[in-house]
Q: What sequence folds into this?
């Protein structure tokens, strides 16, 4: 198991290298640079800035510098902020993004699995149809539509919750963005759970469990849930990385200080260091989350362990 | 009469039927069946695939597919299990009546350890603690002939062979010392060498615990060594019921006789294998008369006209046929 995890980690190194290289050169291909602004700077200052950030060197040399820094664990300077380097900026935004993402992730799993199980156990009956229709709303409406509607209803009309901002970071500030982020994932998780649960409930070993008279609760919770979670878990890896990184839209609608905002600003400003830094950070996160998914798989399906 | 009839009645099926609702109309898989099982008795239910033999007992266990509906009565110690609420049924199945299924490869939960799957019904039905249940389950593993049970107790099903898994399934069913054990073709999925061992196991353990055994099989060969009594099913009906020796020596129903003739013999050439011509009738379009009449070598006009009822031919021997094979003593008197 441990050697399996280690081998998986090693195999991600070439993947990361290819991604970094591609990202580095594609960014440079894009027109414009970090210091192009509305107000053009005097050529002497531009010259100094380029020299400071090694932008005057040949591209291949810049690339080697960057990879060299990276190997030493240095994500490099941010081109738009003199006070904080890339790693520091990511660390400033990370706690907010992480709190939002993990809360939304947990909420999506709880709602998705519960709704999916109910749908499967009441297959083609009233609860299945009602829940299915509600979940469909969450999946088909994009977050930039749902978010303003929720803000209008709960923030302004009913005035139960703040419209946006982080405030003191208390729960009431989290509710709306977390719900908006969790809804589409809860929907997909519930559809996957429902289908998988229906399939598992028709398996012979469920008939065996019923024949043992252990009752419907244990039959579902102990015998059906674990095998039914396999396809859900394979969705959770991508979902988690999406939630922990892809909250750009939600962060800007609710005015939250997460890393999504840095990424958008960095891309618009051609802040090469910042864009590359966030991309690398996301990639490492995705690799790590996929590893967790693989380990969860081994736990759910003992057959995987022996491979 | 014999001590068989004096034993207490355990399970009694009265006018028991199973109907499946399908888009093409109702299908009656089991029709008006009557059967009595006494304590400790071993009965074999024999029939081709689709004769309704498995469905009969899945129905009693409350395990029919959603579109299946039972009618009539199935009295287990005088209590009709068909009319029990789900909660009450769960107090009976797995405790008083247990079932061993055909395919040991799929009957066990692949994601739970053997130990978990063995101890849970002891904890629920008998109120055992986890520790006591483990001790009891380990003891049962020894009795079903699992070598090195302590090690295998903590394995997952995929780490065991098919024969080993079927032993686990049997152990699972017998753990609560049920009064009735239903075995649905328990050896069909196993190697021939393992089959004999598993059948012996059923024989020994049910005798030891005085558990009544209902062995569902399509293999008359399995029946001979194992059962006290045999019921032959055809198209959802019992067509003949007799003590095992009598059924083999003096089959009365032409279908039983044909099944008997179809058992392959070692001295037989493959090309000479006996088959029953035709195929079982479509349950949605049963013949007006005897269900077997389209395939029967002895068919006469009355067979096509109306269905025969089970008639007693001799003590404990009955058959549903207008023209049963004559018994030997009758042959003698005719001559």
A:
């Amino acid at each position: 198991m441990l050697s399996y995890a280690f081998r998986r980690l090693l195999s991600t190194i070439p993947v990361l290298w290819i991604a970094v290289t591609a990202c580095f050169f594609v960014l440079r291909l894009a027109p414009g640079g970090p210091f192009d602004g509305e107000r053009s700077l005097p050529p002497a200052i531009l010259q100094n800035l380029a020299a400071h950030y090694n932008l005057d060197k040949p591209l291949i040399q810049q690339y080697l510098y960057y990879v060299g820094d990276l190997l030493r664990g240095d994500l490099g300077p941010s081109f738009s902020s003199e006070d904080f380097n890339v790693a520091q900026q990511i660390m400033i935004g990370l706690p907010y993004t992480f709190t939002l993402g993990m809360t939304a992730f947990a909420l999506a799993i709880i709602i998705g699995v519960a709704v999916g199980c109910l749908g499967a156990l009441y297959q083609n009956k009233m609860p299945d149809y009602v829940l299915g229709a509600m979940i469909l709303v969450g999946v088909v409406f994009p977050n930039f539509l749902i978010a303003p509607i929720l803000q209008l209803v709960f923030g302004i009309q009913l005035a139960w919750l703040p419209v946006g901002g982080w405030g003191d970071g208390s729960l009431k500030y989290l509710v709306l963005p977390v719900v908006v982020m969790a809804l589409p994932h809860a929907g997909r998780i519930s559809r996957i759970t429902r289908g998988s649960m229906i399939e598992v409930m028709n398996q012979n070993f469920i008939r065996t469990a019923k024949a043992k008279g252990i009752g419907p609760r244990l039959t579902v919770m102990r015998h059906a849930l674990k095998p039914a979670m396999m396809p859900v878990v394979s969705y959770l890896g991508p979902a988690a990385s999406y939630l922990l990184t892809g909250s750009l839209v939600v962060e800007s609608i609710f005015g939250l200080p997460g890393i999504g905002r840095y990424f958008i600003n960095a891309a618009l400003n051609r802040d090469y260091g910042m864009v590359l830094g966030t991309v690398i950070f996301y990639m490492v996160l995705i690799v790590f989350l996929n590893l967790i998914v693989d380990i969860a798989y081994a736990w759910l399906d003992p057959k995987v362990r022996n491979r | 009469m014999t001590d068989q009839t004096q034993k207490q009645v355990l399970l009694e099926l009265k006018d028991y039927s199973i109907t499946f609702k399908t888009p093409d109309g109702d299908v009656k898989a089991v029709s008006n069946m009557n059967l009595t099982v006494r304590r400790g008795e071993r009965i074999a239910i024999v029939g081709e695939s689709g004769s309704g033999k498995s469905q009969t007992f899945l129905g009693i266990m409350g395990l029919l597919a959603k579109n299946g509906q039972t009618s009539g009565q199935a009295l287990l110690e005088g209590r009709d299990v068909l009319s029990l609420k789900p909660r009450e049924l769960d107090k009976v199945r797995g405790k008083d009546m247990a079932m061993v299924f055909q395919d040991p490869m799929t009957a066990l939960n692949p994601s739970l350890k053997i130990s978990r799957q063995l101890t849970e019904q002891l904890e629920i039905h008998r109120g055992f603690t986890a520790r006591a249940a483990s001790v009891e389950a380990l003891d049962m593993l020894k009795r079903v002939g699992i070598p090195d049970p302590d090690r295998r107790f903590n394995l997952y099903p995929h780490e065991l062979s098919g024969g080993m898994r079927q032993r686990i399934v049997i152990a699972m069913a017998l753990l609560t010392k049920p009064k009735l054990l239903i075995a649905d073709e328990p050896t069909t999925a196993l190697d021939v060498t393992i089959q004999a061992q598993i059948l012996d196991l059923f024989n020994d353990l049910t005798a030891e615990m005085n558990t009544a055994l209902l062995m569902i099989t399509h293999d008359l060969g399995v029946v001979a060594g194992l059962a006290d009594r045999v019921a032959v099913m055809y198209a959802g009906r019992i067509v003949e019921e007799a003590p095992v020796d009598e059924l083999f020596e003096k089959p009365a129903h032409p279908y039983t006789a044909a099944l008997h003739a179809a058992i392959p013999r070692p001295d037989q050439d493959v090309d000479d294998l006996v088959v029953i011509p035709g195929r079982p009738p479509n349950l949605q379009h049963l013949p007006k008369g005897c269900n077997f009449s389209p395939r029967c070598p002895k068919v006469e006009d009355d067979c096509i006209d109306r269905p025969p009822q089970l008639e007693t031919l001799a003590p404990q021997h009955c058959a549903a046929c207008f023209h049963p094979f004559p018994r030997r003593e009758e042959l003698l008197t005719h001559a």
